């Protein structure tokens, strides 16, 4: 199991990222050329199959073990009235996840994913980022490692999601810190806030950036100052996946913002990731452009929980099924293109 012993170990891992197996990628690409269809006619399904082959290091990748994890945590900045819901909802939704009644439970069941629910110190909200760092270094490392622990070696595809009232505020701050732009550009309506709450949110992000930006010397420091426990956990899980050449399906705005500091440091970081969808949250579309990822789905979702990622799993399954099961031109005695 991957664990980051200290800041240096985390930062060193980010500098030395494994690449996909090029022989498997080439073998999968060659097989795509043999299947009974005009070259390229399955569009992104073909790219998905070769992407999965490279990361799973086999010519014909499989999806027998899809694992999802939902990390939940609370945020000090929520006390400023930046969400449409009270902070108690985080713990109440965790109880709902445990009972199997939330959207992600249903979607994980329907796409055949195993789901882990990981509450992170719900009774200890982070520091309010507008006036102090969200986490101490020890707390941030603990959250990174709680995330890394879900990327278990036998997983063929990992997705991570989150639940945390107020967390679109730190997500906006992380995005601005990584890729520039002002607070208003990255702040959206989250759970459905009114104009007054949106103004408070923009002000909180402005203050957080003014306070912390000069001190964000590395990716861990940025996550520690501007992030939160579930956010650091997602970053830890996605990095631990990369270290094991495990492909990852990214969910919405917060899941993508979690890796923004890692991508700012190493632009190659998202090579093992597919963006499942583009959320309705302001900022997600531009964030995906910075991550250089084209989302698979546009469904107007703004739920989080890993819901968009779970919805994309059947698409990956279909890509791998066509790749693995279609007849070749030779097998079906179909003439090849001239
Ligand atoms: O995934 C997204 O793009 C997304 C967009 C908006 C809201 N959310 C969810 O809503 C919560 C954060 O919204 P807010 O307004 O409390 O900051 C948190 O629990 C997220 O899972 C998620
Ligand atoms: C009810 C509810 C469910 C959620 N799931 C993810 N974020 C959420 C926010 C709220 C408010």
From TrEMBL:
Its EC number is 2.4.2.21. It comes from the Bacteria. The gene is cobT. It is an enzyme of class 2 (transferase). The keyword Glycosyltransferase applies. This is Nicotinate-nucleotide--dimethylbenzimidazole phosphoribosyltransferase. It holds the Pfam family DBI_PRT. The active site is at 305 (proton acceptor). Gene3D superfamilies: 1.10.1610.10, 3.40.50.10210. It comes from Novosphingobium rhizovicinum. One of its GO terms (molecular function) is nicotinate-nucleotide-dimethylbenzimidazole phosphoribosyltransferase activity.
């Amino acid at each position: 199991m991957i664990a980051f012993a200290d800041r240096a170990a985390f930062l060193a891992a980010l500098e030395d990222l494994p690449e996909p197996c090029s022989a498997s990628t080439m073998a999968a690409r060659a097989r795509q050329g043999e299947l009974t269809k005009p070259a390229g006619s399955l569009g992104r399904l073909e790219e998905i199959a070769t992407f999965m082959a490279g990361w799973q290091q086999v010519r014909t990748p499989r999806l027998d073990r899809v694992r999802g994890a939902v990390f939940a945590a609370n945020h000090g900045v929520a006390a400023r009235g930046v969400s449409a819901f009270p902070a108690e909802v985080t713990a109440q939704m965790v109880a709902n996840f445990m009972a199997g009644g939330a959207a992600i439970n249903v979607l994980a069941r329907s796409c055949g994913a195993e789901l882990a629910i990981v509450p992170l110190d719900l009774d200890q909200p982070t520091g309010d980022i507008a006036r102090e760092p969200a986490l101490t270094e020890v707390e941030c490392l603990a959250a990174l490692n709680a995330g890394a622990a879900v990327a278990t070696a036998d997983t063929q595809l990992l997705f991570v999601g989150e639940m945390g009232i107020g967390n679109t505020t730190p997500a906006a701050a992380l995005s601005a810190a990584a890729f520039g732009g002002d607070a208003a550009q990255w702040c959206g309506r989250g759970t459905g806030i009114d104009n007054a709450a949106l103004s408070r949110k923009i002000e909180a992000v402005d203050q957080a950036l003014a306070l912390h930006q000069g001190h964000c010397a590395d990716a861990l420091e940025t996550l520690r100052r501007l992030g939160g426990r579930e956010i650091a956990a997602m970053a830890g899980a996605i990095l631990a996946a990369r270290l094991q050449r495990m492909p990852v399906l990214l969910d919405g705005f917060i899941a993508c913002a979690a890796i923004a500091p890692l991508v700012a440091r190493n632009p190659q970081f998202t090579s093992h990731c597919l963006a499942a969808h583009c959320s309705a949250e302001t900022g997600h579309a531009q964030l995906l452009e910075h991550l250089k990822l084209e989302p698979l789905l546009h469904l107007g979702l703004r739920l989080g929980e890993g819901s968009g990622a779970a919805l994309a799993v059947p698409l990956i399954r279909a890509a791998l099924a066509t790749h693995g099961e279609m007849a070749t031109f030779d097998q079906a005695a179909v003439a090849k293109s001239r």
